[in-house]
Every structure is written in C-alpha cells, then in structure tokens.
C-alpha cells in the first residue's frame, strides 16, 4: 500500500560492492536480521505472492566482515541491506578484499550510524516487529 510508505532521509555511505543504490532510493519492507549481526545465515523475509515486493535487512555492525553480512542477506532473499554502526554515528566505507565473495554480491547496501538504526526501529514500532513498509532516501554521507 503506497499510502503507508514513510519517507526517511538517512545519512549513509554506499558499499563498494554489490549493485549501486537506485537513484530514487530504496523502497521496501524493513526487517531486522536474526541473528542481528548476520555473521551466520539469517532468516529470510516472509513468502509473498507479489514478487515485486522488496525486503530490506537491517543488520548490526561488528563480529564479521561486511561482505559476509551482505551476502547472508542476499542469500536469505533480501533485495538490499542496511548495516548500522553500534554506539557511534561514524560512517565507514564497506569493502572486501575477498574477490570470490565480492563477485557473488549483487544487492545494494549502505552503512548508517546508530541514530539511523534507532529511527528505523521506531518506524518498525518495536525492535522485534516483523515488517513495516518504508521508503528510504539515502543521502551520501560526508
């Protein structure tokens, strides 16, 4: 339902792997990754009769390489990933030196600060909420 979409301006940095962000931003249903750090395979989005419906994984930083997190989101069926910092607003560029993994990653992903993750969780309604449609306009960080 397009009427329930929430525009959210978020400061972020696009990853140096995977596909680029669409010019118009990302639009889809946000789900928090389980496990939250996505260092192991994560649960996928719910099955949908509407194959055009995109799901975006919200993933916590640390504990394993960014490329592993993004690849787990992609393999679980997410169309994009938002990885957020923990206790910091510092933005970092997500890269990988592992060519084999880099070639496998096809989804867009961005890195945001902790406050953006808190805002996204408020949109979800509570940290364990299942899905909430949102539209993100991801802005290039400085």
Automatic annotation (TrEMBL):
Q: What is its main location?
A: membrane
Q: Coiled coil located at which positions?
A: none
Segments passing through the bilayer: none
Q: Where in the cell is it found?
A: Membrane
The record places domain PA at 35-119
Supply the alphabetized keyword list: Glycoprotein, Membrane, Metal-binding, Signal, Transmembrane, Transmembrane helix, Zinc, Zinc-finger
**GO CC terms:** cytoplasm; membrane
Record InterPro entries: PA_dom_sf, PA_domain, ZNRF4/RNF13/RNF167_PA
A GO MF annotation of the entry reads:
zinc ion binding
Protein's organism: Crocodylus porosus
Identification of the protein by name: PA domain-containing protein
């Amino acid at each position: 339902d397009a009427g329930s979409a929430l525009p959210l301006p978020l400061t972020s940095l696009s990853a140096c792997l995977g596909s680029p962000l669409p010019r118009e931003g990302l639009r889809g249903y946000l789900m928090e990754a389980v496990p939250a750090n996505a260092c192991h395979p994560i649960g996928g989005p719910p099955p949908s009769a509407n194959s055009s419906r995109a799901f975006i994984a919200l993933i916590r930083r640390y504990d394993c390489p960014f490329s592993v997190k993004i690849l787990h989101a992609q393999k679980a069926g997410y169309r994009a990933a938002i990885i957020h910092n923990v206790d910091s607003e510092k933005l970092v560029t997500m890269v990988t030196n592992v060519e084999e993994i880099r070639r496998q990653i096809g989804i867009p992903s961005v890195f945001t600060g902790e406050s953006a993750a808190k805002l996204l969780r408020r949109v979800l309604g509570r940290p364990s909420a299942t899905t909430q449609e949102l539209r993100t306009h991801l802005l290039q960080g400085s």
